[in-house]
Amino acid sequence: MKKKTEKQQAYQKLVDAHDKKRPVLINCLKAFWVGGVICMIGQAVTIFFITYFPFTEQTAGNPSVSVMIFFAMLLTGFGVYDRLGQYAGAGSAVPVTGFGNAVISAAIEHRTEGLVLGVGGNMFKLAGSVIVFGVAAAFFLGLIKTLLIHFGVIG
Predict the structure, then answer these.
(1) 121 assigned to some structural domain
(2) pTM attached to this predicted model
(3) Residue 101 contacts residue 81 (beta carbons within 8 Å)
(4) How far apart are the C-alpha atoms of 55 and 45, rounded to whole Å?
(5) Any stretches that span the bilayer, and where are they (predicted)?
(6) What is the mean pLDDT of residues 70-92?
(7) Spatial distance between the Cα atoms of 152 and 155, rounded to a whole number of angstroms
């Protein structure tokens, strides 16, 4: 590793003097409680589907995820989810609602370029990689499980 020159050391001291200290613990707590509330709402949506529709615990997951993504997209469109993301950081980005926010944010950002090339072309730039890797991972895990069942490793 190269030794820093006096000029570089002086510059680093200047940067350190003006650098804003980040409240890491408070930011972690904000992310934790906001992410927890989002998950609690998701659980309430799941219970709603189990109670009022013919879903079981195993089958209620898909419509619940769809509703949570839809709500995130709707709140992003109204500018609410962006403010929540500024407050909570990863607490709003890590749950599945962060996926909905990423998709609709790109669509909103590029709407001036037109529906097809702007919204349609850019909507899945960020989310597309998530979809591709999710589908690929599901395929390979399904293939591995099928082989393990076929050869009697698991029952």
Answers:
(1) no
(2) 0.69
(3) yes
(4) 12
(5) 31-53, 65-81, 88-108, 128-154
(6) 92
(7) 6
